[in-house]
Structure formats: structure tokens, C-alpha cells
Amino acid sequence: MIAYGFSEYGGPETEYFLDLPIADPGQGQLLVAVHAAGVNPADWKVRAGNRKDTLQTSLPAVLGREVSGTVVQIGTHVDGFSVGDHVFGATAAGHGGYAQYTVLNAVGTAQKPESVSFAAAATLPVAAGTAFDGLAALGLSKEDTLLVLGAGGGVGSMVLQLARADGISAIGVASAAKQEWVESLGARFVQAGENFVDSIATDVDGIFDLVGGETLRSATTSTKPGCPIVSGADPALAGTFGGSGVVRDRTSAAFSRLAGLVETGVLRPRLDHRFPLEKAGEALALVESGHALGKVVIEVG
Predict the structure, then answer these.
(1) What integer is the mean pLDDT of 225-239?
(2) How far apart are CA 85 and CA 232, in angstroms?
(3) 67, 177, 209, 223: least surrounded by Cβ within 10 Å?
(4) Phi first, then psi: what are they for 142, rounded to 5°?
(5) What percentage of residues in the chain have a pLDDT greater than 70?
(6) Per-residue pLDDT tens digits for 139-198
(7) Cα–Cα distances in Å, from 280 out to 5, 101, 152, 198?
(8) How many CA atoms lie within 13 A of 291 on its CB side?
(9) pLDDT tens string 125-147
(10) Is 232 in a helix, a strand, or coil?
């Protein structure tokens, strides 16, 4: 099969196409013909070596962690799935999503509803899942105010949609180019920049951070005492302020719940940027640039 990955830690120059044998699914696993793969900032951060202390990777490695597709082979000790099922989920350890085929753990795979496209389903395991789990951890109530740092990207836009559905008032910090998008999701827009905190002008009840660094550090000056913080970008820094990273629920039940939110219109993945597998490098470069609105998806086949 053809896949896209990297041979050593570093910049985009380490990426290339791989010609790999199609893996057999192990116990509790499914082999899936990939139809779509989500592209996330975590992908280039893994390639850059930013996650090598927490994520074991054998090189060369295939990029990508979330896919949708069709089951083509079933490993032992798997119930509830059949060859030909349309599914989505997070890739198993040692496998990537930018490929013609990949392996999923059955316990982290869900049936794709017919009304949800393959492209939309491929955005759910990482981006929507991170948004849902992080927002649940914050434990905010209706009419609380949530500050979202990095609100215009794939995860941030999902956070804004979920907050709106829960009656939570959101303030979205993003670049000027993403103002219209952030406001269309029901949030008050604040332009990112050195003095963005001056534009918040209210105490916030929770922070969902997708930027980290000095942006997160500055944002903490706008919080109420004991304000909960979750960070998908800088968990260590969040911890110094009493916060944490996002603890993920990567189960079939959790993913099915997310698909249900798409079916009912609570979540509407924005899919402005779709790339064929042969342009996987361009897809990842767009995400790495930070200029993409919503989600970037690679479509296979």
C-alpha cells in the first residue's frame, strides 16, 4: 500500500511516501480501507519530535491518527463488526491514517451513520473528541463564560459549537482572518496578539487552551480564582496554574456519541480543505501554517 510518513524527526523535509505491506489485524483489531483521514497539529508535532517523550514511535512512521473507512479484515476476539462495515476511529499504536489501509482497535472504533459523510466522520476521533472531553472536564454550567485560545482551528471550532449547545458563553481568541468564522459559531471574537487579554474585559470561568506558551500564561490573568483550565497544547504549563491536559475517552461509545451530535446538527465539521492522498504533504503543511479554518481532510481512493 501507499502511505505518507516520515523517516526521522525534523521538519517537512523528513516526510515522504512509503511503499508498505498491508498489515494483518491482530487480536481485537480491524483492518480498514481508508476513505478519509483527519489532519491535526499533533501530526506535525509528532514528526517534529515534540511528542517523542510521551508517544513511542518506530521510524519510519505513517502520519495521522484519525480515519474513516470500510472494514476489510477482522482480527480474532472481535464482536460487533463485519467485513464491509463503514466505520471510523483512532488508529492503533504503530499505524497511521495517511494511507490506503490502516489498523484500528475494535474498542476504539464506531459504526459510521449513513447520514454522516466519510470526510466528516474522519474529523471526530481527534478534533471533536478532544473538544468534547476537554469541555466535559471543565465542568462549566449554563451562562458561564469560556475562553477558547486557538478558537478557529479544528478543535477550537468544535469547542465553540459544543459550548453554544450547552448554553455556555464563549470568547474565541484567533487570528483576524478567522473572525467571521468564530463569530458564526456564536462566540465573541478577540484577535490574537500580544495584548489580547486587554480585549477580554471580563472574568472568565474556564479556559480551553489550544495554543500554550505565553498565550496561555497571559490568559490566566483574566480568570476568576480557582478557574479550571484544560490544555491540548501545553499540559505542563496548564498544570502550573492548577489545570491539566485533556484526558481522552477513545471508546466506541464515545465516538458513537460524537457521530450522533453530527447527525442532530449540534456539531457541523467545517471541511473547506480536502486533499487527495498524493497531496498529503500539502495538507499537513496547511495545518502546520496555522491558517486553516476548521478541519483539513485527506481523501483516499
Answers:
(1) 94
(2) 32
(3) 177
(4) -55, 135
(5) 99
(6) 999 989 999 999 988 899 999 999 999 999 999 999 999 999 999 999 999 999 989 999
(7) 9, 15, 22, 39
(8) 6
(9) 999 999 999 999 999 999 899 99
(10) coil
Mean per-residue pLDDT for 235-257?
95
Nearest to 124 by CA among 140, 102, 109, 143: 109
Is the distance from CB of 83 to CB of 73 less than 8 angstroms? yes
List the one residue out of 105, 101, 103, 96 whose CA is nearest residue 6.
96
For residue 161, what is the DSSP state?
A: H
Distance of alpha carbon 159 from alpha carbon 124, whole angstroms: 12
Beta strands in the chain (DSSP E): 2-6, 15-19, 29-39, 61-62, 66-74, 86-91, 101-111, 145-149, 169-174, 188-191, 206-209, 229-231, 244-245, 273-276, 296-299
Cell of residue 59, nine digits: 521510524
- Stated as kind and residue range, the H or E segment containing 128 is none
Q: Cβ neighbours of residue 53 under 8 Å, at least 6 residues apart?
A: none
Q: What is the pTM of this model?
A: 0.90
| Separation between Cα atoms, residue 112 and residue 161, nearest integer Å | 21
Which cell numbers in the block locate residue 81?
A: 463488526
In the beta sheet, which residues pair with residue 104?
A: 30, 91
